[in-house]
Amino acid sequence: MTAGAAALYTLLTYLCISRISDEITTAGSQFAGLGIKAVPAALAYAYIRTGLAEEMVFRGFLLKRIGNRFGFATGNLIQAVLFGLLHGLPFGMVTHNILVTVLLTILPGAFGWYQGWLNEKRCGGSILPSWLLHGTMNFIVTCLSL
Question: What is the value of pTM for the model shown?
């Protein structure tokens, strides 16, 4: 189930991002066109700069703090909404495209919710599963532009 959900999310995100002007910077756009020589930097960026950092903040900090105070369901929903907004609003502000904004808010938000559920309900509260999943998806999307 996780692999299928991750593949669908990655594909939909890539399709949304590929429709955005090349003038707009995305998480992996600094590696576009660099080919195989960019793979080590893209790996570090995908797994550490974005994957680990975002998982520590959203699933490791926000979900745990809000969840401890208001319960898992509320904490997971709030961290997922914030995660989605962090991803979608910047694109919306740059593109002025409501569809892009909505899609790039809902897709990461939904997957952020899933990652919170996976960590807390299936993996004993560890952020390791969502970190590896997040980094892998970011790396795949980046590689599609190499």
Answer: 0.90
